[in-house]
Amino acid sequence: MRRSPSLLRPRMAVQLAQLPEVERLSPACIRILGGNPGKFTLQGTNTYLLGTGPNRLLIDTGEGRLSWIAALRRTLHEERASIAGVLITHWHHDHQGGIRQLLEVWPNTKVYKHQPETGQLEIVDGQKFTVPGASLTAVHTPGHTDDHLVFLWDEEYAMFTGDNVLGQGTAVFEDLATYLGSLEKMRSLCKGRAYPGHGPVLADGPGKIAEYIRHRQQREEQVIHTLRPKNSAFGAVSKKKGWTPMELVKVIYQDVPENLHQAAAGGVVQILRKLQDEGKVAVEGGDRWRLTDRSAL
């Protein structure tokens, strides 16, 4: 069974904006919170009901909380609409955990997902989904997970970003190089708003994606800078044969509360692995990292 990195590492602490349980974000988009707020899920998982006619598309299902099912049922009744299909952004429980509960209420609903599980229909890169008021195109954007999708919304020139880009804070990822490649793809495709998997809507989607890319690049530069002996912030550490990820965290994230350092260490390890693949760092003694001569190129 795959383990969810979003359930293993908390996102950095931010002051969360208040979001209503149900909110119309545009004439054809209603956000329904998953009813699962927490340090891993922020205000809760965003699920989106899309369209203007009797048949709507639903993006993600939260964890299947009773409050979410009740809010979805109430919203569909008020809209005099039904669900034409459910589109899942990725396999994490807080995005697809509500599928079973949804099918108990609406058993004939079609569920679509990249790398589908039993009973689900496959989504391939570039596949289109259309209901009155909403035409979506699926784009495979691995990094947060290997099956991760975002959806382009033609009518608004907008993008549903899943967990690759959040409304607040930064995202976790399985593979940094892959994740950065997906962010670059997303930046070239997003022309308007970004509707994230967690947090408030982002008015400047391309700008936020570019900010994410810069943030990751800055963290990489900080790791390289800290590994250089002449720049060592710890005299004792500079005499050691390399740095452990946690020693790097204590320098790079010194302004972050210590109870979040373990979470930060996971991101630092991802940076080190990317730099290792590029030949810029090497690991010795199992967990000590140092720069190579190639890092100066």
TrEMBL record:
Keyword terms, alphabetized: Hydrolase, Metal-binding, Zinc
UniProt key word Metal-binding: yes
Gene3D superfamilies: Ribonuclease Z/Hydroxyacylglutathione hydrolase-like, Winged helix-like DNA-binding domain superfamily/Winged helix DNA-binding domain
Cofactor(s) of this protein: Zn(2+)
Metallo-beta-lactamase domain: residues covered: 44-198
Domain of life: Eukaryota
SMART domains: Lactamase_B (SM00849)
Protein name: Metallo-beta-lactamase domain protein
Biological classification of the source: Eukaryota, Fungi, Dikarya, Ascomycota, Pezizomycotina
